[in-house]
Amino acid permease
Amino acid sequence: MTSVQVDKQHDGNEAVQAPGESGEGEGYQRGLGARQIQMIAIGGAIGTGLFLGAGKGISKAGPSLILAYAIAGLVIFFIMRALGELLMYRPVSGSFSEYAREFIGPFAGFVTGWTYWLFWVITGMTEVTAAAQYMKYWTHDSVPQWVTALVFTLILYAVNLISVKLFGELEFWFSMVKVTAIVGMILICAGILTLGFSDAGDTASVTHLWDQGGFFPHGIGSTLMTLQMVMFAFLAVELVGVTAGESKDPKTVLPKAINTVPWRIAVFYVGALIMILSVVPWTEFQPGVSPFVHAFEKMGLGVGAAIVNFVVLTAALSSCNSGMYSTGRMLRDLALNGQGPKFFTKLTKSGTPLIGTTVSAAMMLVGVWINYQWPGDAFNYVVSFATISGMWAWFVILICQIRYRLKADRGELPQSTFKAPGGIWPSIFSLAFLVMVVVMMGIDKDARISLYCAPLWAVLLGVSYFVLRSRDPQGAAFAKRK
């Protein structure tokens, strides 16, 4: 079944498949192999939130940030298993909006598709902002931050005109660099703790995790307030669902990729932070400074700091590259379902949604303007926007999994071959956790701006959908292919 070829939402009537569409690839080339999907899944959540945002989290919560990452990581695993259950029920490109249309309603699909597109546009702004900040390590402010952000945006736009197979290969190596660097850093820190070499060897100790004011130096409340930044670090982990329409063997590859989530979080987030905070006391880290780069500088490994800075630069560009990939696909999915301009449906000969990618890249240039206007606060502004829009996809995934599982258990739909453990209860717990994060964002004055903007975005979407329904009632009601 392609896109949401559903006239009646599986209420006992037959699903309607659009004429001329027989495969689940929706016209895309299935050019992403198992090796590439695995590395996209592993590297998808290793980006700015960990490499740059963790500095702010450490300064706010101290060592207890480790616990925040661990608990949030468990919720992310529940979300990914919920997504996996849906993907094995019906693997399609643009999965979040597809499932929203089927299990919640056409308006929910419309909102989800456009909101996820907005999320990646804003994330692209975030990542080029971070990349521009990392470049200061070498330029020392000799090049304006907005100029660097502009150059990176244009380069990544050019990269995304390549075929999906080459995109997957680039992402494979981007992710390989990130993974290798983090594993190497963990091993170096472990060597410092056990063998005592480097400038930090004499003072490095796991006791740093509790002897600098305790594990919760600013109280549990401060730890809770970091959840917005922590959840931002995990945004994009669901990107593997967008690749379903271009994976060579989705029903084999995607479950394996999703099952890497627990050890991915344990090693790259929890393990890395434990090692860094054991080698360098948490009190020495500052917001806006990568804790990885700072840790190597404190060790006296100047070359190591330069290498790590290059790696985190790669991580930011990799995430932005993924953002351009997903935005083009999301716009095409909306257009295929009559919920976006029809010109977004066109593909190049290599299977790339050129117009959607071009429009998205143009929108990302707004990030360059943000860097020009507010070079110091740009990262914090766009993080707040990205978090609330990205979390919407998680809400939708969990709600859809609950509704799907209830229908499947009643025999109204076929059972998934990759069931989420615990049925609907982990999804209910995860929904409650996400609601708590939203509440924390409302309390945090730095993150509150995203909640102010959410109603404006909702009104804009509501008006747009009303116009769509008045001009094309059939297209607004269910998927319609031209």
Observations:
- The chain has 21 helices and no strands.
- The longest helix spans residues 302-336.
